[in-house]
């Protein structure tokens, strides 16, 4: 099928934006020569290996490092007491200063770093780490997010919010609670809506804890200088690392240098501050470079995706309009807050879904438990929410005997209408995404429902996300005397193709070839501030900053031409201008761009704001599946993912982002699950924790770029890294329901879970008929 | 144990050139290649399950992280860095670029080497055959649809140049 897309298929005047330029670093990647911190070695470097907690919650009674220190080749064994000689208050974190560089007095999850061993040989460091003995007095632990609301086990005695976010200030000093943040939104009169409802639907949905498993495991290397520190790190947020390390050390920012080459995947795992605090302290302690590389197993104890429980209740009138919705969301944040409180709020306010509902209440809770910490993972909480509200939406439609697509159409948020916060929705092609999926799947047409024990079904789901706001990006474009350009930017290319997309923006603005723009990788001594590469924010925020910087350079080139007596609009090459001005090939023109969108913080009591986000991301999925009723096995025959990403800067890279995001979410939906036994992850390896491979790709997979434009975005574009994750899980659960009439409310949707649900349904129907 | 019992001098052919190294018994092939400044084979899962550390030993693709360095004594070792020694990319590498068959690039050398091995054995693989053969390589960015296209495209290019 050919879909005519006039906006998308028309390239920009200079032919750079809208062109499917292959990634600028493509050659380095296919030859194995791309730089990753993984491969970095510097002279006099020591390797770090940490000793990790074996209990989920406990007081440290004693640490015996003598056997490790006696091992030949061990350089130093370090505990929290040693760390304190470098950083007196060694607690870090983006939202709360709650995470110790090494455990202080207590441990709060299995796998928490307690002792660090340094050696010139990594094998010696690993062996020595085995020789450290730590004695714990076990404490009562809590693992479930609902139990954590009221449990006597308390993970942190007192809440320690960081000063970074003004809306966390009210939490300072709260004691004896596991609720790290309670976010609320109240809009309209929910009780009245429910009292007047013709139908009320209430459900509870759960998601499991999973891990990003970037194939380049997390790694950082710190090199001390005379009164400086350089950190080479596989990080998505070099600017934040610099600020946080400088804060810990009590140094000015400019003495900390953070450098990031290519990343072997990030997906949110490598955000904010992770390994950097410990390597910084160790390097300063021993005055030598220190490298710390995690194993795949250790990653599971470092950062994960929130498990969650979502209770959702809807009031519906007799015309099938949703008039009220109550949402209660519980986020299992694990032992340290990381960015969990932001997930709770920034995602929490979209919990009612992309629907036009006048009366809404939301309560969203960030909870501490004794599990490994949870943070950002591709979607920042949105996939957990869409899983619940789109399963719920489907159940309502079924309950009312309405077609799920028609029911959604009746209730969708349309352009200009206020979302739950009161912010009007603009440039969000929610209906366009739904229409594209329905059209591709020929939703109105009857389809083959299977035969014998194998049944077929279809499901659809659509979700949306607000961008993280307010955040800042700065970019510098440097035009050399021959007219070629460098772009200095702290956005991290972790595979999403930002280097290429940003170069396209520069090239379009300066009328260059994209391939002739060189992107300088993040180096905080050189590249300017960028909040972080997260939440699909870069294309919009960094992209706008890059465009402003390029326009600034372009304007200066025009001014140079005018100063040389050339009439406006005359055709000249920048190289000739430089030569004319300086008498030879010399000089530079530096363009600078800074971008921060407007934003209004939600009112604390109501959670309302009329400008809560600079843009909305929309993504949806349709699937056609086959369920084997004898085994519970689900096979995905066809998957259609459609996203509103504004205008695509690079259609081919965008399509890869769409299919990649959907396939990652497919793993979380169908099989990925961290098995926990008393806080211990019993499947922390790719042998037991399966991630999607070749055979998990649906037989037929389609990526659709929905016709749209983000008017405030650079050349009409906005981000897309996460959008295709939104609809995957509920679309599949809805399709299972369609195929075999059973509803799964907990992820993952394993054959065992499907089989059990089928047998239970059989049992119920035979009991009923008997 | 005395170090002399575990340390051994090995000689092998690395990307066509004769080389030697003195290695301890516990050192694996990925570590050994790092001593020759070759970073294309990378340890990721550490269990031979992801394919990021793929190295070709005597014409057979192996997991470098599970192969002890001393075992390549006298053998021919080929890595991703050997493919473009003439300065030109191999048809498989070019197809991966043209189809955009990667994102972060960390797993790419393993996929490229496995694709070469597949096409040497089966110049015209069907899609199920491609999926089966590459099932031991993982890509967390999930560029699988593009990889499948790249393998098909490389296969037809290689068949065309063989016929010419």
From TrEMBL, chain B:
Signal sequence range: none
Top-level taxon: Bacteria
UniProt xrefs under InterPro entries: 2Fe-2S-bd, 2Fe-2S-bd_dom_sf, 2Fe-2S_ferredoxin-like_sf, 2Fe-2S_ferredoxin-type, Beta-grasp_dom_sf, Diverse_Oxidoreductases
GO molecular function: 2 iron, 2 sulfur cluster binding; metal ion binding; oxidoreductase activity
Keyword Oxidoreductase: yes
Domain spans labelled 2Fe-2S ferredoxin-type: 8-83
Keywords: 2Fe-2S, Iron, Iron-sulfur, Metal-binding, Oxidoreductase
Name used for this protein in its record: Ferredoxin
Organism: Rhodoplanes roseus
């Amino acid at each position: 099928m050919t879909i005519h897309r006039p906006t998308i298929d028309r390239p920009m005047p200079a032919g750079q934006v809208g062109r499917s330029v292959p990634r600028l670093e493509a050659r380095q990647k296919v030859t194995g020569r791309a730089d990753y911190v993984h491969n970095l070695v510097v002279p006099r470097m020591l390797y770090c290996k940490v000793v990790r907690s074996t209990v989920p919650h406990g007081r440290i009674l004693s640490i015996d490092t003598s056997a490790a220190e006696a091992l030949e080749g061990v350089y130093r064994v370090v505990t929290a007491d040693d760390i304190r000689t470098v950083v007196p208050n060694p607690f870090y974190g983006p939202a709360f200063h709650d995470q110790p560089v090494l455990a202080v007095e207590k441990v709060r999850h299995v796998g928490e770093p307690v002792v660090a061993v340094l050696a010139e040989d990594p094998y010696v460091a690993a062996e020595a780490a085995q020789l450290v003995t730590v004695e714990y007095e076990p404490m009562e632990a809590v693992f479930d997010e609902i139990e954590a609301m009221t449990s006597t086990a308390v993970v942190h005695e007192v809440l320690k919010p960081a000063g970074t976010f003004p809306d966390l200030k009210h939490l300072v000093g709260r004691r004896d609670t596991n609720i790290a943040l309670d976010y609320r939104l109240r809009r309209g009169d929910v009780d009245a809506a429910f009292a007047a409802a013709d139908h009320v639907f209430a459900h509870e949905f759960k998601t499991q804890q999973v891990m990003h498993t970037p194939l380049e495991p997390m790694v950082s290397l710190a090199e001390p200088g005379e009164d400086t520190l350089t950190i080479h790190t596989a990080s998505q947020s070099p600017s934040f690392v610099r600020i946080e390390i400088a804060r810990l050390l009590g140094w000015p920012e400019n003495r900390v240098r953070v450098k990031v080459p290519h990343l072997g995947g990030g997906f949110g795992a490598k955000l904010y501050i992770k390994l950097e605090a410990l390597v910084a302290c160790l390097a300063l302690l021993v005055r030598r470079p220190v490298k710390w590389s995690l194993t795949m197993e250790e990653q599971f104890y470092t950062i994960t995706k929130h498990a969650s429980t979502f209770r959702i209740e809807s009031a519906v009138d007799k015309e099938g309009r949703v008039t009220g919705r109550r949402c209660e969301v519980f986020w299992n944040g694990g032992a340290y807050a990381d960015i969990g409180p932001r997930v709770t709020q920034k995602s929490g306010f979209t919990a009612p879904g992309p629907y036009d509902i006048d009366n809404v209440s939301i309560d969203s809770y960030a909870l501490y438990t004794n599990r490994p910490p949870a943070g950002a993972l591709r979607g920042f909480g949105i996939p957990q929410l869409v899983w619940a509200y789109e399963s719920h939406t489907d159940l309502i439609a079924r309950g009312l005997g309405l077609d799920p697509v028609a029911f959604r159409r009746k209730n969708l948020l349309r352009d200009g209408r206020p979302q739950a916060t009161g912010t009007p929705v603009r440039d969000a092609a929610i209906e366009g995404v739904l229409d594209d999926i329905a059209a591709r799947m020929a939703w109105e047409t009857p389809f083959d429902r299977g035969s014998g024990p194998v049944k077929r079904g279809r499901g659809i789901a659509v979700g949306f996300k607000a961008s993280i706001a307010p955040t800042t990006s700065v970019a510098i474009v440097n035009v050399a005397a021959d007219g070629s350009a460098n772009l200095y930017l702290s956005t991290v290319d972790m595979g999403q193709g930002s280097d290429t997309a940003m170069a396209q923006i520069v090239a379009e603005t300066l009328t260059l070839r994209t391939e002739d723009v060189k992107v300088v990788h993040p180096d905080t001594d050189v590249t300017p501030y960028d909040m972080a590469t997260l939440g699909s924010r870069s294309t919009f925020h960094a992209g706008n900053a890059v465009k402003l910087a390029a326009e600034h350079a372009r304007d200066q080139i025009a001014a140079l031409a005018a100063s040389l007596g050339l009439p406006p609009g005359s055709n000249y090459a920048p190289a000739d201008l430089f030569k004319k001005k300086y008498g030879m090939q010399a000089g530079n023109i530096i363009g600078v761009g800074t971008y921060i969108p407007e934003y209004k913080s939600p009112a604390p009591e109501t959670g309302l704001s009329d400008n809560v986000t600079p843009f909305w991301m929309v993504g949806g999925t349709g699937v056609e599946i086959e369920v084997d009723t004898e085994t519970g096995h689900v096979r995905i025959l066809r998957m259609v993912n459609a996203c509103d990403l504004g205008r695509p800067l690079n259609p081919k890279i965008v399509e890869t982002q769409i299919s990649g995001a959907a396939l990652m979410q497919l793993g979380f939906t169908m099989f990925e699950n961290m098995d926990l036994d008393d806080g211990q992850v019993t499947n922390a390896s790719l042998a037991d924790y399966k991630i999607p491979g070749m055979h998990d790709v649906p037989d037929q997979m389609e990526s659709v770029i929905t016709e749209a434009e983000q008017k405030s975005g650079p050349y009409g574009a906005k981000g897309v890294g996460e959008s295709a994750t939104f609809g995957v899980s509920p679309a599949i659960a809805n399709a299972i329901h369609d195929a075999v009439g059973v509803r799964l409310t907990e992820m993952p949707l394993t054959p065992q879970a499907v089989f059990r649900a089928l047998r239970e349904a059989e049992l119920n129907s035979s009991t009923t008929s008997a | 144990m005395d170090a002399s019992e575990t340390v051994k001098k090995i000689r092998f052919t690395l990307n066509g050139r004769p080389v030697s190294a003195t290695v301890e018994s516990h050192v694996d092939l990925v570590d050994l290649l790092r001593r020759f400044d070759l970073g294309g084979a990378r340890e990721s899962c550490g269990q031979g399950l992801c394919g990021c550390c793929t190295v070709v030993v005597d014409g057979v693709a192996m997991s470098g992280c599970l192969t002890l360095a001393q075992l390549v004594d006298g053998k021919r070792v080929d890595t991703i860095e050997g493919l473009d020694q003439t300065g030109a990319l191999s048809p498989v590498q070019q197809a991966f670029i043209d189809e955009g068959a990667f994102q972060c690039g960390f797993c790419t050398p393993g996929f490229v080497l496995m694709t070469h091995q597949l096409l040497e054995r089966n110049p015209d693989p069907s899609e199920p055959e491609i999926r089966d053969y590459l099932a031991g390589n993982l890509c967390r960015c999930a560029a699988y649809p593009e990889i499948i296209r790249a393998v098909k495209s490389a296969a037809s290019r290689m068949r065309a140049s063989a016929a010419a």
